[in-house]
Specification:
mainly alpha; 3-stranded antiparallel β-sheet; elongated
Length: 373
């Protein structure tokens, strides 16, 4: 049980005081009847509603110190969730808030400084698996959070400007390892992998390898986006990686890729072409075909005696994460080195450049600058 607040004396001024919720309240001359009466009334109020006193005290302390780094991180993540949705970008921003919640959750934003910014960088450096490029990316995310805080009046501009002076980690000047470059994936590895994919995922892999689109672009393709008027089909994406820069993204679909995509256009115009529901149905059907137990023994499809709800039912559209996990699972079954969907884009770029040149690869990949290609 918490100790009751006492009737205390301030020797320098000979005043009585009481401490409630971290706040000191002076009562008047020590020992006087007036001060004792006020002490008894305040103590009675505190005992009857202690929570309200503590809440007011916290509010007063917050007003004195201003918003903390925890307030900033929570406010920015709320904004990011509305702005980006539950995307990879939002997940990365959430990861970037890790050192703030671990080290500086109670520090006022006005007291955040370049030294604290470097401590956050060192927090990432503790893990030897994190590459230099990854740590620099996390620090850019932190700067973005501070910049947004300036625009919302949560962070003094001087804090953001001073943290910008902290240089990123330089190659060869840090213990953090270099990230491995994304290389093309060999055709024989892809061919071995697709044998263990569902038909939907296998067609996604084959289509992406031919057109060189990004995984995020692939999962967004809908029949309404496909223009089949010419010999080469075009797919115009409204939502893509560089859409916020006002740039257009067109995917060019040749005859071999058309043969793959044609099977997925006979559905609602505004539904994704590649459906995880259809892929899951194919996976369960393939598993049923391999069943060794006779149908008369055990459960038949749809007759489970125990009603089991899946942890998460497949959605209407693939995400880049579910697409990549499907490929990784197939790699395990195929007993080949794991690879990611982004490597298919590099494979397409390498093949196009070797046959047609760098400029053609730039057009197909949708790069605005040749140096990126």
């Amino acid at each position: 049980m918490a100790r009751e607040p006492g009737y205390c004396r301030h020797k320098a001024t000979n005043q009585a005081y009481i401490r409630l919720g971290g706040q000191v309240i002076y009562l008047g001359e020590y020992g006087s009847e007036k001060s004792r009466e006020r002490y008894r009334s305040l103590k009675a109020e505190w005992l009857s509603n202690r929570g309200a006193f503590e809440a007011k005290a916290r509010a007063r302390r917050a007003e004195l110190v201003g918003p903390t780094m925890a307030h900033l991180a929570n406010a920015y993540l709320d904004h990011a969730e509305r702005y980006y949705g539950r995307t990879t970008e939002y997940a990365n921003l959430k990861l970037a808030c890790g050192p703030l919640s671990d080290l500086y959750s109670h520090r006022p934003t006005s007291q955040f400084c370049p030294v604290a910014f470097r401590v956050c960088r060192d927090w990432w450096l503790k893990d030897p698996k994190r590459s230099r490029q990854y740590i620099n990316k996390m620090m850019r995310y932190l700067l973005r959070i501070l910049k947004w805080g300036c625009s919302e009046g949560l962070v003094p501009p001087a804090v953001y400007e001073s943290c910008r002076c902290v240089a990123p980690l330089k190659r060869g000047r840090t213990e953090a390892p270099e990230s491995k470059p994304v290389l093309p994936v060999a055709d024989h590895i892809v061919d071995a992998t697709v044998k263990h994919c569902t038909e939907v995922v296998a067609d996604m892999v084959r289509f992406q390898r031919l057109v060189g689109c990004r995984p995020g672009e692939l999962v967004r393709i809908k029949p309404s986006m496909v223009n089949r008027s010419g010999e080469v089909w075009t797919i115009t994406l409204a939502d893509h990686k560089t859409a916020h820069h006002g740039k257009d993204r067109v995917i060019y679909v040749g005859p071999r890729a058309q043969a793959i995509l044609k099977r997925y256009l006979l559905r609602d115009a505004d539904k994704p072409c590649f459906s995880p529901i259809e892929s899951e149905r194919q996976r369960l059907a393939a598993r049923h075909e391999k069943r060794v137990t006779p149908p008369s023994c055990g459960n038949r499809p749809g007759t489970n005696r125990i009603a089991r709800k899946p942890r998460k039912a497949p959605g209407e559209a693939f995400t880049t994460g579910t697409y990549a996990r499907s490929i990784r699972s197939a790699c395990v079954r195929a007993k080949v080195a794991p690879w990611s969907p982004n490597q298919l884009r590099h494979s397409a770029a390498t093949a196009i450049r070797a046959k047609f040149g760098l400029e053609h690869a730039q057009v197909i990949l949708g790069h605005s600058e040749l140096g990126v290609t």
